[in-house]
UniProtKB/TrEMBL annotation:
PANTHER family named among the record's database cross-references: SENSOR PROTEIN CREC
Histidine kinase domain sequence ranges: 47-145
Family matches, as Pfam families: HATPase_c (PF02518)
InterPro entries noted in UniProt: 2C_sensor_his_kinase, HATPase_C_sf, HATPase_dom, His_kinase_dom
GO biological process, one term: phosphorelay signal transduction system
GO MF term list: protein histidine kinase activity
Entry's EC annotation: 2.7.13.3
Keywords: Kinase, Phosphoprotein, Transferase, Two-component regulatory system
Catalytic activity: ATP + protein L-histidine = ADP + protein N-phospho-L-histidine
Keyword Transferase recorded: yes
Name of this chain's protein: histidine kinase
Origin: domain of life: Bacteria
Amino acid sequence: MPAGCDAALVLRERLAFWSALAEDQARLWQLVGADEPSPVPVAAADLGAVVDALLGNVFRHTPQGTAFRVTLHRGSGMVGVLVADAGPGIPDPERALRRGNSGAGSTGLGLDIARRLAESTGGGVRIEPSALGGTGVNLWLHTDGRAAGPRRRLLRRTRAHGSRH
């Protein structure tokens, strides 16, 4: 079983990374709810890769200047991450969640990786319209040990320094 991590810390670290590109592209962004520890039963590298995939989708599929927000929610036995944007939205959310389906310029695997990570804890992923007017991707991870099956490392690092960009 992978060691768990602090979802709030992972979100702060990944947003610090993405903030430079957001500034370059005149994107207003917000991180909400990441001020207190939020333990989750997944490896920090796996959660970081999922956050990168979701934010990469925002940058890839919305015009420069499009705002986005990442919100961390805590509930009884679960932690949720909502990545919301003010872009054009996803026309077919069900299709987007199927492995290998994507819009132009991506492999379509990011949402599948997010879904697999969430399901490894008994959680899931849902896509719906966001309060910002675009797409909201809701990832929820159960923290109370109700994993759907045996946990395994979902991603393998292939680059010497772990750089994904």
